[in-house]
Structure prediction request, 413 residues.
Amino acid sequence: MTRVTRAQTRRRRTFTALMSVSVLALIVILWPKGSSDQFAASSPTAPAATGSGSPAVSTTRASQPLPAWLAWMSGGFLSTFRDRIRGADGLTRTVVIAGDTRWMTFSHDASGDVVDQPTPPYMIPLDAFAVEPTEYAPFLPSDQRDAIVTALERGEAVLGQTSSELRRLGPGDSLSFGNVTVKAGAVAPDDVVGWSEMLVNRDVGRRLGITDERYLLAFADPAMTLPHFTTDVRSLLPAGSYLRTVPPGGTRFVRVASGVNPPVVMKTVFGEFEAYPRSDDPAFLNMDPTWYDAHIRTRTVPLLGAVTCNEQLFPALIGALTDVEAAGLAGAIHVYSGCYAPRTVARSTTAPPSNHAYGAAIDINAPENPYGSTPTMNRRVVKIFEHWGFDWGGNFLIPDGMHFEYRTPPANA
Prediction:
């Protein structure tokens, strides 16, 4: 069995470093000013593909995002939701996207040569979505619709632009997940595939184990309002469900966990790792020690002392804590509750790795801000962390007041 060589590992590190610098620079330059959460950037140019599959679609991002309403709930919708939402009052088109983390064991180019092959038992986690092509078609830009739908109907995967670059794969190449192999049929702009790493049809998704109904996109009558849309969706959910609804243009990432960076963005900034779920608790991960040694550091920071995080997080973290101290708010920081922790989001076995797994999130004052409770974090502290590029978990669908995670380079980067 072919194993990843030291030279390949060095090339991966170099690629990750270059991608990190590029993404940081791109976001600093193009991040929109003011209150809007919409990206204004264009995707980078796709790598030339030498495979024999369907042609890659246009590599520029949609300049006019389609006016889709978005809904998602914690843990995903019930299996019956997809059929029931079609009859909702005021909705003209709907598509429910399934999504789960799948573990890639190797990939090949069109000629059969290995591109990636982690040394077992390590694998690469991929954020994968599954859709019914005809349902998804109306939500695709017209100039890209035919190529994407054709690839999906053939049982081929559509790779997001960033995923294609990270994987070094294009049309005609293939990805394997244990005994299931999927050929790549097209490369599409990240926003067109919901910022996923791989989009497949539902039949292929079932073979891969993509089963959780993650989010809803909908077109609606012109008179639709957010309260009306929310009522439509909530009427089909169990009482007390955590639901978030967003009007067209209301979030920069039109996907599940709106507003939070997709895994593919975290990979380009903090480095992609290989791992495998622990046998005693699959929500926790055994991480590749090579990645750990290259990215995770323990440093002393203001107010908290020694913390263990991704080295890319320290400039923003130190900046935020320094400003907290300078503002006379040191007394609002009571306890450091962790940064690097190799586990999945909400400890779900099908969810993506948590930002803690990248060492890109930090918990503070956990005893007084338990998950799901009303946050008590000092709001001046929150504003300082947000200025330094952090998202605060107190604003999440299920409040997580202790939690701060990387969102974007800080305002003064």
Remarks:
- The chain is about 25% helix and 25% strand.
- Residues 6-30 form the longest helix (25 residues).
- Confidence is low (pLDDT under 50) at residues 1-55.
- The radius of gyration is 21 Å.
